[in-house]
Every structure is written in C-alpha cells, then in structure tokens.
Write a structure and sequence with these properties.
Largest sheet: 2 strands, antiparallel
Distance between the termini: 17 Å
Helix content: 40-55%
Number of domains: 2
Strand content: 5-15%
Low-confidence stretches: 13-21
Number of helices: 6
Order of helices and strands: HHHHEHHE
Number of strands: 2
Amino acid sequence: MTFDEWWRLEGHLLYSEAEVGHITWESVMNLAYVAGCEINLTLKTSEEWQKLCKAEVLDPDGWDRDPQNYQFSWYEELITRGEFERRLGSSTIQCSVADLGNIWKK
C-alpha cells in the first residue's frame, strides 16, 4: 500500500504542506514510516503524469480551467502523483474498463 492509498483510507487527503498548515512533511514521513507505507513525493507537471497514465482527460474539471490559469495548472505546476489522481477523480476521463483498477502504465 502506498502512502497516498493509506492516507485516503484514513479519511485524509494531503494536498501540500501549505494547505494542511500545522502538519509538516517530517510528520507526514513519520506517519508513513509507522504505517509501513512508501511515500513518493516525485513532482511532475500534469502533462507529464498524463503520459504515464492509461486514462485520457477529456474534461479537466479537477484542474483550474480559467483560461489564464489552465496553462499553469496543466503544463507548469509541479504536483505529486496523488494530487494528479485526486484531480483525475474530479474530471471526465476515458479509459478501458479493464484499466479502471490500475490506470498507470508499467
């Protein structure tokens, strides 16, 4: 189980240190260690994550769709895989039924 999966199971959703405020990354890393989870804080643009994903975003509701901000939120903003998955979950996507359980390319 990844840290993102564990965090969601516990009813939490971690966006960034700034958004959770009182929780530091050190605390998050300690939680992950205690829970026996891997934590991956690799940062990529949404465009880069999309290339690794089997699902295609058709309507990016999970991203800032304002014309002035969409360019930044899709092509420039660096986010974790967990944040990409969260945004994907709020968007209209296309993928095969067989891939719904595992949307990541090998």
